[in-house]
Amino acid sequence: MTRINGATKLYGLIGHPVKHSLSPLIQNTLSIVMGINSVYLCFDVSPEQLEEKVKNLIGVGVEGFNVTMPHKEEVIKYIDEMSESALYVDAVNTVFVDKGIVKGFNTDCDGFVRSLKESFGCGVKGDSVLMLGAGGAAKAIAVGLLQDGCKKLYIKNRTLKRAYDLKESLPIYADRIEVLENEKHIHEDVDVIVNTTSVGMHGALEGKSPLPESFRFNTNQRVVDIIYSPSETLLLKQARGKGASTLNGYSMLFWQAVIAFEIWNDVKVGKNELDKILKILRENGVLI
Fold first, then answer.
1. When you count CB atoms within 10 A of the terminal residue's CB, does the N or C end of the chain come out lower?
2. Hey, what domains does the chain have and what are their CATH numbers?
């Protein structure tokens, strides 16, 4: 492990709250394995502190930081340049200070698609996708899916207006998006199913599924739940029981972090390094 010294770079995460975050474990493991002299910390920043804390971080020489709830949209006020994905999603989860220019990225888009490619061996080009939910995470995932060539994106959300708002916010992809107005219209023969809701998450919603009990999975489907606690939700358990391929939220969390790390350090994390990193993370309970 690199000893912290005068040349150590500081990266971090801003959000509220952040104590639960796995990002320090992932990012510091990346730094150790890749031989990068850096350290990654969490900074609990309340909404009323955001402007002051962002300026302070940049002012003391922090070259990059991640952004989580509730700041992903508000932080845009302090960004000089936005990536294409961040512009589409209208949210930033990664900031890079590049020679004084504050650049904003949304690595959730590419991170989600890369998690599919690494886990299933393919993306979604030419595929039909059923996406459950229409919140902030859903928008980033929708952009990633559509940029990767998804043929048709079906959106099912409890509040129809929010689903239509999501569709209308992506006009260049509108012809490939269809909002499902009731459960009778759910397409069971889609190639990919993605749950972006909190249904199934540890707590009050654990043990519940965002799909009706009568839903018929098939062995050709890939089913993804961005929840990672529990590591297997009821949705994934039911899908796996019918022979579908499944993936939990640890994978997206990991790959969006890798992409942020690559942006900050101008490196590519190779296969040998990835194997070492994943081994360490699994030993620490991150079940990717």
1. N
2. 9-105+251-283 (3.40.50.10860), 110-248 (3.40.50.720)
